Amino acid sequence: MSVQSAAADVDVDLRQLFASLARNWLRIVLVTLVVTGLAFALAWLATPQYKAVAKLEIGPRESVFTRPAGSTNDDKPATDEEAVATEVQIISSPDILKKVAADLNLDKLPEFDETLKMSALSRALVLVGLKSDPFDIPPEERVLKAMHDRLNVYGVEKSRVIAVEFSSKDPKLAAQVADAIAQAYLASKGNAKKESNTAATGFLGPEITDLQNRVKEAEAKVAAYRAQSDLLMGGNNSVLATQQLSELSTELSRVRANRAAAEATADSVRKALQNGGTLDSVPEVLSSELIQRLLERQVELRTNIADLSTTLLDNHPRIRALKSQLADLDGQIRNEGQKILKGLATQAQTAKAREDQLVAEVNTLKAASARAGEQQVELDALQRDANAQRQQLESYMASYREAASRADRNYLPVDARLLSKVQVPTEPYFPKIGPITGAAAAASLLLMAIGTLLKELFSGRAMRPAAGARFEPIEQVAMPVARTEPKVAEPEDEDGDDSVAEDRVGQGAAMVAAPGVPAGAEAPRPSQSRLGEIDVDKAAEKLIASGAARAIFVSPEGDEAAATAVLVAREVSDAGLRVLLLDLTASGAASRPMLESGLFPGITNLLASEAQFSDVIHPDLYSDAHVVPVGTADPVRAMRAADRLPIIMQSLTTAYDLVVVECGPADAQGISRLVGDGTEVFLSMLEADDEVTQAAVKLIENGYPDVTLVTPVGREPGNPLPGRRSAA
């Protein structure tokens, strides 16, 4: 059976669990009534407290008709959450509270200064040092502290409204203080604006006077520089030299164009005269009236020649006379062309001379314009400085007039207003007797019910086997049967008194009757003395009487002797103590007879950090004791954390009245980690042999002189208890 399947074999018996409420109803009801009564009495006797509320709206209150010229609502920042939080801090600031306390004489009231009327209980607490002496605090600080305790200032969610709450046992005083704080805040905002306005006028007055002087100086510099540099202004607000340069450049362009046109025309006339071509295509020739008349005469002669040629021959005197006249006309036209050519050449030369003159003038004006440009830059800089200072002066003068007018008319709008007048509270907000009593009753009833259910659940009484669960046979540890010790003759001492062999293992080695000698037979003097031991009942009585917290059992004889620790744990548990058995044997011999399986998580899982305390503690099937088995983790890995055993033992001894540890055949060094305050060391013994004796002697020699021998002989295990599946 695996651990998971074993753990799944139990269920919570809900009927048994909730039946515990019926069994313990009287205790639950009594505790609930007591708590309810105490809550009712405390609420009834408490001093009633009244709370008054004043609400302030935060926002600009400037009218559109009184707003300074040039400003709009957009100039003012929006009131956001940070702004509202800032105003909350201002309202609860010490300056405002001090003013309210002084106006209302709160320092004369015992509610705000406990030194005026200290109770006897308060004086006693101060004397024993459980309360600070109020006389050590200045009176003003005491009043402020009391006001802070009763004041609550907060911003209403998703709004620009601030609530000012003040509580007092006097409703009228609560309303007065809340209203006074709101009015003091509005007054402080107005005073702040007045101080800001006064500071502004105080700053602007000297600044305006200084700016006026600077503006005069700047404008004087502009006029002086303009006169010194001889910067004459022409049209279009430009320097005269620059304007002349522009006009000459235009004239130069026109002269160059005329010269180029005259040269081109003269060149075409020259080519026509040189090549003997006609001059009809030259515009300047055609524009001459003389040439036009000559050309008309030439056309007329050619027409006559053509008419006469039809009737006369070429040598006819008349035709020859007409041709002679035609030749004279051609010569006259060419002479006129030469004259036109000379006129065009003269025109081109005149234009060239004019061009040269204009170029010289342009170069001169270029230099003058460059100098004028530099001077103009300097003049512009002076002019800009003068303009800037004049603009600043005008701005300051406008602001000064606005501030002065507001100061004269005492108009300083505050960016907040009181939404409504504070009302005197009629009902106390504390104590609410009904809700307090009801909450105390419900809480106490619920807590008592939960506590009862948890107690029933952790005790294991509410656990039952799961439906269909199968349990393997429980392995029992065989207990040795009772044995009869042979009688040994006791020697007498010198005084004749009977003495018994000392039961202390530390006093020499004792001898035991040889096993196998029949009862009643005459036995020879034994070679071993009888060891004195106690039974399980005596061991349990010793642990209960001594109030021991730990019982360490060492079993030199192996797994069979481990039954001693189991029987002692059950015996002490039956006596009513909370007992836990910790199995540290290698085979799990001590925990196997107490559980239905050897696969439950145990101490190795706890050391290996694979489980918690609640996972490794299980109930004994035969008693009310609990057991921590060996576990299922790797022993080698678990032993690496063996240093945690003292911490685990300390935790277990805190939770249980007695922790029984079965260590198997361990030595003194092996049990050193388990020993603590209130520890008893026992040696489990089935038969008194040399092995047991040597183990006892080694324990005594290594620091455990009070070791006790216990034998389980004669004890039988009981019947399993039903439903014992979980220690939780």
From TrEMBL:
Membrane-spanning residues: 25-46
Topology versus the membrane: Multi-pass membrane protein
Major location (coarse): membrane
Coiled coil: 208-265, 291-339, 365-399
GO cellular component assignments: plasma membrane
Localisation per UniProt entry: Cell membrane
Keywords: Cell membrane, Coiled coil, Membrane, Transmembrane, Transmembrane helix
Molecular function, one GO term: protein tyrosine kinase activity
Protein name: Chain-length determining protein
Alphabetized Pfam families for the sequence: Wzz (PF02706)
Domain Polysaccharide chain length determinant N-terminal residue range list: 11-104
Organism domain of life: Bacteria
Classification via PANTHER family: FERRIC ENTEROBACTIN TRANSPORT PROTEIN FEPE, TYROSINE-PROTEIN KINASE
InterPro entries associated with the record: Bact_polysacc_biosynth/exp, EPS_ExoP-like, LPS_length_determ_N, P-loop_NTPase
